[in-house]
Amino acid sequence: MLPPPQPDWALFFDIDGTLIEHADHPEGVSIPNDLPQRLAAAQTALGGAVALISGRTIAWMDSHFEPVRLPASGQHGAEIRLAPDAPVVPIPMPKWRAPLEERLKTELASWPGVYIEHKPLSLAVHFRAVPEFGDAIMERVTQVGLSMGPDVEFLRGRFVIEVRQSGRDKGTAVAELMRTAIFAGRKPLFFGDDVTDEDGFREARRLGGFAVAVGPRATQQADYRLAAPIEVRAFLNRVPKLLEQAAS
Ligand SMILES: O=P(O)(O)OC[C@H]1O[C@H](O[C@H]2O[C@H](CO)[C@@H](O)[C@H](O)[C@H]2O)[C@H](O)[C@@H](O)[C@@H]1O
């Protein structure tokens, strides 16, 4: 069980499978009505030290968590916003991005049900509708991607192959945020459910914090485990009150 929140904690949340339940399609997810306000309340209670660290874009986060804006990193570390009012800083456009998307559209056309999600600085190839082809699709994506240069990486997540620029990940995003005035000196807790969250877990632990695994996926790094997004949201909801009680 997670210990009661402490005033020096910094919370880093993955989104899909962690804050919200998965859906059959990336745009099929539903954000609980009160989630943005709950995040904002925790943000206030923790001096601003609450961030979203996702494979999604920051633009997606802002539009779906409106009016709340948090420090954030999107597209697996390829873009970062160090404070709510700071600009979003992207990496330079990866050379492989556009040509790889074009090639994959052709290469994967014979697998009905495969969906290539366009993201400005990364790519996601979804095979939730045809999980039996996951291995073959992974092989094809890797083969084509590697032919486009050394600075591309492939991560097999939940019914998805995430293609990202090497050298950037959720761990580098946590490290960068932890160097800012809002987060510095705090104990980071990274909440995540998928293999793409392992870098975030590692960095949070390296900096003296905890990894909070969500859901059933096995990981060597979990300090604590919550069974599902509903438990993450229940924890989040309790943060302001518990901190207030501890202070009084
Ligand atoms: O880092 P996250 O916040 O967990 O985002 C990871 C990816 O999430 C989305 O895909 C996943 O969720 C979809 C909706 O539940 C689901 O249909 C899909 O199978 C999952 O892989 C999103 O589409 C990706 O861009 C994110 O990278």
UniProtKB/TrEMBL annotation:
Molecular functions (GO terms): trehalose-phosphatase activity
Annotated catalysed reactions: alpha,alpha-trehalose 6-phosphate + H2O = alpha,alpha-trehalose + phosphate
Pathway note: Glycan biosynthesis; trehalose biosynthesis
EC id: 3.1.3.12
Cofactor(s) the protein needs: Mg(2+)
Gene3D superfamilies the record matches: HAD superfamily/HAD-like, Trehalose-6-phosphate phosphatase related protein, domain 2
Family matches, as CDD domains: HAD_TPP (cd01627)
Keyword rRNA processing part of the UniProt annotation: no
InterPro entries: HAD-like_sf, HAD-SF_hydro_IIB, HAD_sf, OTSB-like, Trehalose_PPase
Domain of life per record: Bacteria
Keywords tagged on the record: Hydrolase, Magnesium, Metal-binding
Pfam families attached to this UniProt entry: Trehalose_PPase (PF02358)
Membership in a protein family: Belongs to the trehalose phosphatase family.
Function: Removes the phosphate from trehalose 6-phosphate to produce free trehalose.
Name of the protein described by the UniProt record: Trehalose 6-phosphate phosphatase
Gene: otsB
